[in-house]
Amino acid sequence: MLQTLPGPFNTPPFTSSSVPTPASLSPLFTFNWKVHTYIISEQIHPSWPKVQVLFYIAGRDWDDYSTVQKLPCVRMFAFHETQEVRGSCKLKGELGICVAELEPLASWFSPPTVRPGRQKVSEQVQGTPVELYYIVQSTDSGDCSSEDSRKSSPVHTEPQRPMAYFAGHTPMQRIGSVRLFQPLSELKLDNNFVVMAPSKPIKQRETISTFLALSTFSSVHIFTL
Protein backbone atom coordinates (compact mmCIF):
# COMPACT_ATOMS: atom_id res chain seq x y z
CA MET A 1 0.00 0.00 0.00
CA LEU A 2 1.31 3.43 -0.96
CA GLN A 3 0.00 6.55 0.71
CA THR A 4 1.20 10.02 -0.22
CA LEU A 5 0.80 13.15 1.82
CA PRO A 6 1.60 16.78 0.99
CA GLY A 7 4.75 18.13 2.57
CA PRO A 8 4.94 20.93 5.13
CA PHE A 9 5.25 23.75 2.63
CA ASN A 10 3.56 26.32 4.84
CA THR A 11 5.32 28.41 7.46
CA PRO A 12 4.86 27.09 11.04
CA PRO A 13 2.35 29.21 12.96
CA PHE A 14 3.46 31.72 15.56
CA THR A 15 3.50 30.05 18.96
CA SER A 16 3.51 32.36 21.90
CA SER A 17 2.35 32.29 25.48
CA SER A 18 1.73 35.13 27.85
CA VAL A 19 1.81 34.41 31.56
CA PRO A 20 1.64 36.88 34.48
CA THR A 21 4.82 36.83 36.52
CA PRO A 22 4.76 34.90 39.83
CA ALA A 23 3.94 36.82 42.98
CA SER A 24 7.32 35.87 44.47
CA LEU A 25 9.01 38.11 41.90
CA SER A 26 6.79 41.12 42.52
CA PRO A 27 9.65 43.28 43.90
CA LEU A 28 11.39 42.94 40.52
CA PHE A 29 8.34 43.43 38.33
CA THR A 30 5.66 46.04 38.11
CA PHE A 31 2.09 44.78 38.38
CA ASN A 32 1.43 44.51 34.65
CA TRP A 33 4.70 42.90 33.53
CA LYS A 34 4.28 39.62 31.67
CA VAL A 35 6.70 37.03 30.32
CA HIS A 36 6.05 36.07 26.71
CA THR A 37 7.55 33.12 24.85
CA TYR A 38 8.18 32.30 21.21
CA ILE A 39 9.28 28.89 19.94
CA ILE A 40 11.88 29.63 17.27
CA SER A 41 11.37 26.33 15.43
CA GLU A 42 8.65 23.77 16.11
CA GLN A 43 10.23 21.08 13.90
CA ILE A 44 13.42 19.54 15.30
CA HIS A 45 15.64 17.24 13.24
CA PRO A 46 18.61 15.07 14.34
CA SER A 47 20.92 17.02 12.04
CA TRP A 48 20.46 20.06 14.30
CA PRO A 49 18.94 18.83 17.58
CA LYS A 50 18.37 22.17 19.29
CA VAL A 51 15.19 23.47 20.90
CA GLN A 52 15.30 27.25 21.23
CA VAL A 53 12.72 29.49 22.87
CA LEU A 54 12.80 33.28 22.99
CA PHE A 55 11.65 34.84 26.27
CA TYR A 56 10.84 38.52 26.56
CA ILE A 57 9.04 40.91 28.89
CA ALA A 58 6.05 42.99 27.91
CA GLY A 59 4.27 45.71 29.84
CA ARG A 60 7.26 47.23 31.61
CA ASP A 61 7.90 50.93 32.16
CA TRP A 62 10.45 51.66 29.45
CA ASP A 63 11.57 54.83 31.24
CA ASP A 64 12.63 52.90 34.33
CA TYR A 65 15.95 51.08 33.88
CA SER A 66 16.67 50.56 37.58
CA THR A 67 15.65 46.89 37.49
CA VAL A 68 17.62 45.89 34.37
CA GLN A 69 20.41 44.35 36.46
CA LYS A 70 17.88 42.49 38.62
CA LEU A 71 16.02 40.67 35.86
CA PRO A 72 15.35 37.02 36.75
CA CYS A 73 16.44 33.71 35.33
CA VAL A 74 14.27 31.53 33.11
CA ARG A 75 14.52 27.75 33.30
CA MET A 76 13.04 25.69 30.50
CA PHE A 77 12.06 22.01 30.68
CA ALA A 78 11.33 19.51 27.92
CA PHE A 79 9.38 16.34 28.74
CA HIS A 80 9.17 13.14 26.74
CA GLU A 81 7.55 10.08 28.30
CA THR A 82 9.39 9.73 31.67
CA GLN A 83 12.48 11.77 30.77
CA GLU A 84 13.35 15.44 31.18
CA VAL A 85 15.91 17.81 29.69
CA ARG A 86 16.59 21.35 30.89
CA GLY A 87 17.94 24.64 29.60
CA SER A 88 18.15 28.15 30.98
CA CYS A 89 18.88 31.80 30.23
CA LYS A 90 18.78 35.14 32.03
CA LEU A 91 16.60 38.01 30.91
CA LYS A 92 18.96 40.86 30.01
CA GLY A 93 19.18 44.35 28.68
CA GLU A 94 16.72 47.17 28.31
CA LEU A 95 14.36 44.91 26.36
CA GLY A 96 14.50 42.09 28.93
CA ILE A 97 15.03 39.22 26.48
CA CYS A 98 16.96 35.95 26.30
CA VAL A 99 16.99 32.67 24.37
CA ALA A 100 16.94 29.38 26.27
CA GLU A 101 18.30 26.34 24.47
CA LEU A 102 18.28 22.63 25.21
CA GLU A 103 19.20 19.47 23.32
CA PRO A 104 16.80 16.50 23.33
CA LEU A 105 18.25 13.09 24.04
CA ALA A 106 19.14 11.06 20.95
CA SER A 107 16.61 8.38 21.93
CA TRP A 108 13.78 10.91 21.71
CA PHE A 109 14.07 10.98 17.93
CA SER A 110 13.15 7.28 17.73
CA PRO A 111 9.50 6.21 17.41
CA PRO A 112 7.67 6.37 20.77
CA THR A 113 7.73 3.19 22.83
CA VAL A 114 3.98 3.50 23.44
CA ARG A 115 1.86 4.36 20.41
CA PRO A 116 -1.94 4.61 20.32
CA GLY A 117 -3.42 1.65 18.47
CA ARG A 118 -5.61 3.83 16.27
CA GLN A 119 -2.96 6.37 15.40
CA LYS A 120 -3.01 7.06 11.68
CA VAL A 121 0.05 6.95 9.44
CA SER A 122 -0.48 10.63 8.68
CA GLU A 123 -0.16 11.36 12.41
CA GLN A 124 2.96 9.24 12.79
CA VAL A 125 4.88 11.18 10.13
CA GLN A 126 4.25 14.45 11.94
CA GLY A 127 6.99 13.66 14.43
CA THR A 128 7.14 12.86 18.13
CA PRO A 129 5.62 15.61 20.30
CA VAL A 130 7.69 17.01 23.17
CA GLU A 131 6.10 19.35 25.71
CA LEU A 132 7.90 22.51 26.86
CA TYR A 133 7.44 24.29 30.21
CA TYR A 134 9.27 27.04 32.07
CA ILE A 135 9.62 28.72 35.43
CA VAL A 136 10.92 32.19 36.34
CA GLN A 137 13.34 32.42 39.27
CA SER A 138 15.09 35.38 40.86
CA THR A 139 18.88 35.34 41.03
CA ASP A 140 21.02 37.46 43.32
CA SER A 141 24.38 36.66 41.75
CA GLY A 142 23.27 37.46 38.22
CA ASP A 143 24.37 33.99 37.12
CA CYS A 144 21.88 31.71 35.42
CA SER A 145 24.03 28.63 34.92
CA SER A 146 21.84 25.58 35.23
CA GLU A 147 22.55 22.04 36.32
CA ASP A 148 23.48 19.39 33.82
CA SER A 149 20.90 19.89 31.07
CA ARG A 150 20.54 16.14 30.66
CA LYS A 151 20.11 15.32 34.33
CA SER A 152 16.70 13.97 35.25
CA SER A 153 14.80 15.14 38.32
CA PRO A 154 11.45 14.26 39.85
CA VAL A 155 8.48 15.86 38.15
CA HIS A 156 5.44 16.22 40.37
CA THR A 157 1.86 16.80 39.40
CA GLU A 158 -0.72 18.47 41.57
CA PRO A 159 -3.69 16.11 42.19
CA GLN A 160 -6.25 18.88 41.84
CA ARG A 161 -4.69 20.12 38.60
CA PRO A 162 -3.28 17.11 36.72
CA MET A 163 -1.90 19.22 33.88
CA ALA A 164 0.20 21.47 36.16
CA TYR A 165 3.87 20.57 36.61
CA PHE A 166 6.00 21.61 39.56
CA ALA A 167 9.77 22.08 39.86
CA GLY A 168 10.24 21.86 43.62
CA HIS A 169 7.51 24.17 44.91
CA THR A 170 7.34 26.42 41.84
CA PRO A 171 4.52 25.77 39.35
CA MET A 172 5.62 25.49 35.74
CA GLN A 173 4.01 27.44 32.93
CA ARG A 174 3.41 25.70 29.62
CA ILE A 175 5.18 27.10 26.56
CA GLY A 176 3.86 24.72 23.91
CA SER A 177 5.27 21.73 22.08
CA VAL A 178 7.79 20.85 19.39
CA ARG A 179 7.98 17.77 17.20
CA LEU A 180 11.04 15.57 16.77
CA PHE A 181 11.57 13.83 13.44
CA GLN A 182 13.41 10.56 12.85
CA PRO A 183 16.75 10.47 10.99
CA LEU A 184 16.17 10.06 7.26
CA SER A 185 18.33 8.66 4.47
CA GLU A 186 18.16 10.04 0.94
CA LEU A 187 17.80 7.83 -2.13
CA LYS A 188 18.23 9.67 -5.41
CA LEU A 189 15.63 8.76 -8.05
CA ASP A 190 16.90 11.04 -10.82
CA ASN A 191 18.21 14.57 -11.20
CA ASN A 192 14.98 16.03 -9.83
CA PHE A 193 13.63 13.84 -7.04
CA VAL A 194 14.88 12.03 -3.95
CA VAL A 195 13.12 9.63 -1.60
CA MET A 196 13.69 10.21 2.10
CA ALA A 197 13.13 7.13 4.27
CA PRO A 198 13.99 6.19 7.88
CA SER A 199 17.66 5.28 8.17
CA LYS A 200 17.01 2.41 10.58
CA PRO A 201 16.72 -1.20 9.32
CA ILE A 202 13.21 -2.07 8.16
CA LYS A 203 11.54 -5.24 9.38
CA GLN A 204 9.33 -7.45 7.26
CA ARG A 205 5.68 -6.25 7.17
CA GLU A 206 6.62 -3.10 9.05
CA THR A 207 4.75 0.06 8.06
CA ILE A 208 7.06 2.98 7.33
CA SER A 209 6.61 6.51 6.06
CA THR A 210 8.77 7.97 3.30
CA PHE A 211 8.96 11.42 1.77
CA LEU A 212 9.31 12.36 -1.87
CA ALA A 213 11.30 15.59 -2.10
CA LEU A 214 12.39 17.86 -4.89
CA SER A 215 16.15 18.03 -5.27
CA THR A 216 17.86 21.30 -4.42
CA PHE A 217 19.45 21.41 -7.87
CA SER A 218 16.25 20.62 -9.77
CA SER A 219 15.25 23.13 -12.44
CA VAL A 220 11.77 21.76 -13.22
CA HIS A 221 8.76 23.98 -12.53
CA ILE A 222 5.93 21.58 -13.42
CA PHE A 223 5.82 17.85 -12.75
CA THR A 224 3.25 15.05 -12.47
CA LEU A 225 3.22 12.32 -9.84
From TrEMBL:
Boundaries of every Transmembrane protein TMEM132 second Ig-like domain copy: 34-160
Signal peptide per UniProt: none
Entry annotated with the keyword RNA-binding: no
Annotated keywords: Membrane, Transmembrane
Pfam families, alphabetized: Ig_TMEM132_2nd (PF23481), TMEM132_3rd (PF23039)
Region of interest: Disordered: 1-20, 139-160
Membrane listed as a keyword: yes
Ranges for domain Transmembrane protein TMEM132 cohesin-like: 184-225
Database matches in InterPro entries: Ig_TMEM132_2nd, TMEM132, TMEM132_3rd
PANTHER family per the UniProt record, alphabetical: DETONATOR, ISOFORM E, SI:DKEY-112M2.1
Protein name: Transmembrane protein 132C
Native organism taxonomy: Eukaryota, Metazoa, Chordata, Craniata, Vertebrata
